[in-house]
Amino acid sequence: MNQQVPHLNIDHVTMQFDTPTGPFTALDNVNLKIDKGEFVSLIGHSGCGKSTVLNIVAGLYRATKGGIILDGKEVNEPGPERAVVFQNHSLLPWLTAYENVELAVQQVFKGKKSKKEMKEWIEYNLELVHMSHALHKKPDEISGGMKQRVGIARALAMEPTVLLMDEPFGALDALTRSHLQDSLMEIQRDLKNTVIMITHDVDEAVLLSDRIVMMTNGPEATVGEILNVDLERPRHRLELANDVEYNRYRAEVLRFLHDRHAKPDVPNSKVA
Amino acid sequence: MMSVVSKLENIGMFAPWVRIIKGENRREQVNVLLRAIGIPFFAFIVFLGLWDASAKSVVTSLGQVPGPAQVMEQAQGLWQEYKDEQVKEAKFYERQEKRNAKKLAKSPDAKIKWREYRGRPTYIDQIFTSLVTVFTGFFIAVFIAVPLGIMTGLSKTLNSAMNPIIQIFKPVSPLAWLPIVTMVVSAVYVSADPMFEKSFITSAITVTLCCMWPTLINTSVGVSSISPDLLNVSKVLRLNWATKIRKVVIPSSIPMIFTGMRLSLGVGWMVLIAAEMLAQNPGLGKFVWDEFQNGSSNSLGRIMVAVLTIGLIGFLLDWIMLTLQRKFSWDKSAAR
Q1: What gap in Å lies between CA A49 and CA A223, rounded to an integer?
Q2: What are phi and psi for residue A21, nearest 5 degrees?
Q3: Which pTM was predicted?
Q4: Cβ contact (<8 Å) for B251 and A88?
Q5: At what angle do helices B198-224 and B174-188 cross, to 10 degrees?
Q6: Using CB atoms, which residue from A59, A90, A138 is nearest to B233?
Q7: What is the ipTM metric for this complex?
Q8: Contacts for A104-107 with beta carbons within 8 Å, 24 or more apart?
């Protein structure tokens, strides 16, 4: 890590939720500094607060203590410069793929792009995710993987400073997932976005990330270990399958997850 | 021509006929037709038989309860009255025109008067009045209930504020509202040259008061059950309030709004008849009441015609709303 002001700083974030049985501390003192163009995965067991971290960065939640600093400014509300790809695509079901992206583009580039430029920009982004053939299909008429592609196109079209992905491929079958991972790597190679991605999938984390942030089990979850993945890009899943380094990283993450599961930090019955 | 046929085939009602004509597995299509038309037809015949048999055994002070045949006769009678009235009206205007033409021929400056024909409202006029009244009441209800429902759906505070009011007023019968509405309309709607009859306003407002609740409740539920993900999308996009309502909230709750409107129109039509009876609005309700008061040997038959008309129109209104719902709703599974 460099010593300058970080691009994105998750600074001593603590999150408490009020529940009928008293306050519930989901996150305790989470610290993470992310560089521009870096691809960071958050991995951890269900209920460890990964999504909470993402929602705080997105501005959908406000941290109880600490905060998010993006390019020197504190983040305290949602905004298109931190576009989110939601787990279940969250496309508006009454709009076509094109119109879904259009809604975002019109909102972000109102007065900055002409009608023609907007149209080109929408089509360019749908092209990026290989959806040009189904511009005018509604979400009901396309597969889960395609919906997620449109969701990614919508997020990319906002030209975000940070792209936030909440288990973007979690609900997809293995083959579709690997296709989308390849697409995402391709896009990342060209656009060099800063990305924070939540995942459950160890292979996905190692394949896509520059750094993997492993979170301890909740409640009071925090950053457990951070693993730098120094694999050369472009990465190819088939070549990496027998790569010693790749498998070492993989084993490292698995070991962390397994240890945490076998010996949870805090004994609890609430979080599975 | 071909395209017309293939279009007809897409309309459920016509599909089997088209296929039979085309010669596609005829036996199956005949079976489909039997199930779709034959069984309801048979059931209807059985119903008419039972009605005929039981009507004969009841004798009232106005004579025997009319069976299907007598009712049919009365329906034809009402239609004939309408026809006769039309002829009278045409003659009236013809005479008036001749008279005025004569006057003008005598002296070009003569003042001529055009009078409107004021005959007895026929059964068809009464149906028309009822429809206008119910739609007036219904549109006022929708106009109030949809925006209010959107607001209560969006705000938990407003929702808990409105909930008791809705629950209390929802079950109130039109008969209870009517005296109050009548008095209020009499007091407020004062004008030398009223555009609408008081009875019309009273009936329409009573319909509004009774039929706004389903739309209000369904809109509110529809809005409050918008997926939180979609609301998050609108937050991330920083949509302003109006855009959020227009682009996310309303489209998302359109299926529920239509369900509510469909229920509302059904309630409105049912309530209207009672309201017209009491308010003396010259529609179907007044027709039934007048026939009852009239007490001639034809009265029961004519009331029965009104009952069937009310039923058929209610059915038709529901079908129209369902068709609209299917047309405007993105969620095709909701309108079934």
Answers
A1: 10
A2: -100, 20
A3: 0.82
A4: no
A5: 120
A6: A90
A7: 0.85
A8: A104/A80, A104/A154, A104/A155, A104/A157, A104/A158, A104/B237, A105/A157, A105/A158, A107/A80, A107/B237, A107/B238, A107/B239, A107/B243
What is residue A37's DSSP assignment? T
| Pairwise CA distance, residues A8 & A6, whole Å | 5
Pairing of strands A162-166, A65-70: unpaired
User: What is residue B240's DSSP assignment?
Assistant: -
Which residue matches tokens 């004008």? B191
Residue B247 near chain A (CB below 8 Å)? yes
| pLDDT tens-digit map of B186-210 | 898 888 777 888 889 999 999 999 9
Q: H or E element: which one contains A188?
A: helix A174-191
What pLDDT score does A270 carry? 43
Are B163 and B201 in contact, with CB atoms under 8 Å apart?
no
Report the candidate in A172, A177, A225, A234 with the shortest Cα–Cα distance to residue A203.
A177
A146-185 pLDDT, tens per residue?
999 999 999 999 989 899 999 998 888 888 888 889 988 9
Domain positions in chain A are 91-159
Strand order of the β-sheet with A82-85 is: A82-85, A162-166, A194-199, A39-43, A211-215, A223-228
Which among B238, B243, B252 has CB closest to A79?
Answer: B238
DSSP state of B35: I
State the angle between helix axes of A115-128 and A144-157 in degrees (0 to 180), rounded to the nearest 10: 140
Question: Can you count the helices (H) and strands (E) in chain A?
Answer: 8, 10
State the best of B237, B258, B327 to mutate against chain A, taking most chain A CBs within 10 Å.
Answer: B237
Q: Is the four-CA dihedral A217, A219, A223, A224 of positive or negative sign?
A: negative
Cis upstream peptide for B68 (omega within 30°) = no
Of B112, B92, B117, B87, the C-alpha closest to B101 is B112
CB contact under 8 A, B330 and A93: yes
Residues of A in contact with B227 (CB under 8 A): 90
B59: its two tokens: 């004798």
Q: How far is A83 from chain B (nearest CA, A)?
A: 7
CATH number for domain B123-328, candidates 1.20.1300.10, 3.40.190.10, 1.10.3720.10, 3.40.50.2300 = 1.10.3720.10
Q: What gap in Å lies between CA A77 and CA B154, rounded to an integer?
A: 19
For CATH 1.10.3720.10, the residue range(s) in chain B are 123-328
Q: How far apart are CA B185 and CA A78, in angstroms?
A: 50
Quote the percentage of chain A above a pLDDT of 70: 94
Query: What pLDDT score does B22 carry?
Result: 74
